[in-house]
Fold each of these.
Amino acid sequence: MAHAVWAGALSFGLVSLPVQLVSATESHTVHFHQLQRGTSDRVRNKRVNERTGKEVAYDDIVKGYDAGDEYVLVEPEELDEIAPGRSKSLEITGFVDLDAVEPIYFDKTYYLAPKGKEYAKVYGLLREALAKANKAGIATFVMRNREYLVAVKAEDDILALHTLHWADEVRDPHKELPTLPGRTKPDKKELDTAVQLIDALSVEWDPEEYHDTYQEKVRRLVEAKRTGETVEKAEPAPKATNVVDLREALQASVDRAKGAKQKSGGRQSGGQKKQAQKKQAPKKKAPAKKKAS
């Protein structure tokens, strides 16, 4: 069972709800140790004084801010003392339409749970109210010496907390990407064919149908090297489409997509399969009611 990474009081108006925060995701990335080539010796990173070359103990390290002509030293406890919201509070200061928060602002997702069963009623009330209003509660709180902007929203039968990027952390694409073409009017036939391609490749969203193939290949590579076998190399990346052949490439893509669907007999996506299975599943007989004694 995942452990709580933060605990405190979630409040909206004059209502307060003790909650705990658990990360909603976990990483399955394959991790490697660093070894010296030709040996099985681990290579480890050390904290070294760059002037003396001697290793420095963790307790002797302080944070230093480069002010240009000097370093301003800051102790860890000084950062703790100025941290806002040290009372472990998560106060919702306003509610916004879910559609108003652009996807680029979302960072990491956590699950919110009440700290005890006695708070289930308040927890359920907030969840149902957010779902009915189609709103998200906006709040700030401090975790691990850092202040976060967050959105609290209803998801199925739980409350989820999404950390958000601050406005000054989101880059302006027009400043960062000088090659952006801006709004251009495409050729009508090319646009119609591109829309046909999107329609032909449209599926129901089912996250269970997608998995990290790269991590699977890394594990196969490790196992193959351990047993002395070989692993097939990946296909090279496709070449950029020539602008002159764009319409032809689009039409060929549409034809291929339609042909693939016909071969599979109009194969359903995961979401459609589940819906069909629900319809075909035989109805279970209701259990007989227990007679009162």
Amino acid sequence: QANYAAGNAFLDALAHHRRALGLPGTSMAWGPWSQVSGMTGTLTDADLQRIARSGMPPLSTEEGLALFDAALGVSEPMTLPVRLDLAALRAQGEPQPLLRGLIRTPGRRTAAATANGDAAAGFAQRLSGLSAAEGREVVLDAVRGQVAVVLGHAGATEIDQDRAFLDLGFDSLTAVELRNRLSALTGIRLPATLLFDHPTPAELVDLLHARIAPEPSFGAEVLLGELERLEKTFGGLDITEEIHEQIAGRLEVLRAKWNGLRDTAAAAGHDGSASEEDFDFASASDDEVFDLLDNELGLS
């Protein structure tokens, strides 16, 4: 619509010019009308919902005609007969410069920023303690949910994470809206070119997950944390004899591997056979460790 915008800019300037010369002239920058017209005839329901979410719901025919009469009765050469949803505009945080005269209460902007910050902190908290795979699924569900809202889908499960955003139906306007929604959700300042730099939901999810929940560097604290999580799970298990033996065997493998890390220097056994002292726990597979334990316990 670049040609349409240029034409409007010319008419706005012409109205100002004529008024400066003492001549009549009025330019009206209309908001959308609910009645189908040449400008809105090709818009889908999702397009109309997007415009409404942006804080500009459509005008009824009666509202439009009343605003037309009102615009002719003012001395300004240019008017904006639009319907604004101030609550939706406040929810977006910092208002656009043109609207700051209507939405300029610092407390409200601070409250909106605080609400966005709380939402972002809550989302990051949901990822806390999850494995990389689990965390990625949470981010994927969130991205799919936002994509569904922007595109007007009833559900998010139909969105293929490996399909390009352009093929899903995104254009420049919906791309910016998705960027804004994800920025508010995650608390991360994301570029306007987000969907072009990361053209599929899968690539976008990988970016967001890495930014929100980066992989921790492995160390003693991480290992102790994993052991604490494991210990907490013991209380909620329904243990059978078979499960007990399986888990006990697995724990024995881990204990043997951990003990083997203290001293990896091999020492030949007195009878020349392999023993725990010359067993390489660091590189051994679980099956090899199980075989060693079976030999030590006389089970094979």
Amino acid sequence: MKDVFLVSIGAAFGANMRFILYKKLEKLKIANYVAILIINNFSSFLLGFFLSAVPQIRYFNFSFELVLFFSIGFLGSLSTFSSFIHNLFDLFIKFKFFRALKLLIISIASGIVSLAFGLFLSNQYSG
């Protein structure tokens, strides 16, 4: 039951952080799909950075709990997969197939690059 609590608390923080970031990007007049792309890439970067740091954290007794809280709870809730899928669906309904395909490719590719960059930076920082 402790595991569920840790994931839930992390998710609450992540959802609120996503909402705050989205509202800040909205004030900057950034398009909805671009704001979601930015938030998802930020989350991917943090996941890569965190996953690279986990081996150093494993020496502590709470490493498993930290992974549950941060990577599954916080980052899982911070990333906006459902909004991303909704944007793709919306584009398909409007018959904007090329734009949907472009959004799909850019989102996946930039997410992988962001994750790799986080891993790289964390490795540089720790060693």
